[in-house]
Structure formats: C-alpha cells, structure tokens
Design brief:
The chain is mostly beta strands. It has one domain: Immunoglobulins (Immunoglobulin-like, Sandwich). Helix content is 0%, strand content 50%. Strand 1 and strand 2 form a beta hairpin. It is globular, with a radius of gyration of 13 Å.
C-alpha cells in the first residue's frame, strides 16, 4: 500500500518525547472526510494525510508552529495554526 494511512499514524505508536498533532474536520457540525495538509512555519508543504470517514487525522511533527489546511470536497479550504510541544499530543478541531 502506498501513501499515508487513512486518519494518519496510529497514536498507540507514539513514544515518550515524540510530538503529534491530531484532530477532526467537521462541516455544519458533522464529521467529513477529505485531506489535511501540514505546512511548516514558513508555509512550506510538509505532509498530507487523508482523514478517516469520521474526519479524523494525525501527524507526527517536530516541536514548533504548524499550519493545518483542511481540504474537503464542496467546502472552502480552512487553515488553523497550532503550536506543537515536545512530548505532547495537540488536539485540533477544524470546521469548514
């Protein structure tokens, strides 16, 4: 199988000291499937994962500021800036 797993990497594999960003995409209050892009602090593309059927996603990331860009069919792309801290799991909700 090629590409990222749907929903992103499994959080159970998160090791002590690793950093992850996860969340859910919704439209009109309901979970939606699509893609989420991870952009670094300069706006450069870093990664992209398909969401699960319930709009969930996850990235392993370095400590620092990141921008998440939700790409959902029939919705305007939305961006959310988050700060990931070493050894933490950052939860993000994005409504499109």
């Amino acid at each position: 199988m090629c590409g990222a797993p749907i929903g992103g990497p499994d959080v159970s594999t998160l090791k002590p000291g690793e950093t992850a960003i996860q969340g859910q995409i919704t439209k009109d209050g309901e979970p939606v499937a699509g893609y989420v892009r991870l952009l670094d602090s300069t706006g450069e593309f870093t990664a992209e994962v398909p969401t699960s059927a319930t709009g969930q996603f996850r990235f392993y990331a370095a400590t620092g500021e990141w921008t998440l860009r939700a790409l959902i069919p029939g919705a305007q792309a939305d961006r959310k800036v988050v700060v990931a801290e070493t050894g933490s799991l950052t939860d993000v909700a994005i409504a499109v």
